[in-house]
Amino acid sequence: MFTERLWDLIKAYINEAVDSALDERGYTQKDTYEEKKQKSQKTGFDEFQEKYEKYRQYQKQSSYQQSYQNNYKSSYTNTNTSKNTDEDKYYKWLELPNGSSFDEVKKSYKTLMKKYHPDNFHNNETKRQTAEKLSQKLNEAYQYFEKKYSKK
Q: What's the pTM?
């Protein structure tokens, strides 16, 4: 009984999230009489699967649009600005404001590496892999600033 109630709550929450995401993007449909009749005959899980599939299609479309926009923007960007955007990205990865000193970069790097080092997550494989990716980004950013400030 408890598990059924919990399952119903989870389905309702996910259905609401999917509906709101689809509504924001204008993917709502007016149900015809036939569709309403079919929905009444479907189980809750079937309805959930359909909504989830619609949501996945929406995600694919938005990712295609984003990749198109990124390709379009990158083809018209000036090469001089790409260095600045990399630097901005590195500051963001190190959770620092733009123009921070090397001492601040070093301090932030050390604290973030202590927090997100992959060895801290040896029990959970997915968290460890995420931590590895993050530590690679932090290392890349730190190496960039070492070269910039000629500390190496």
A: 0.45
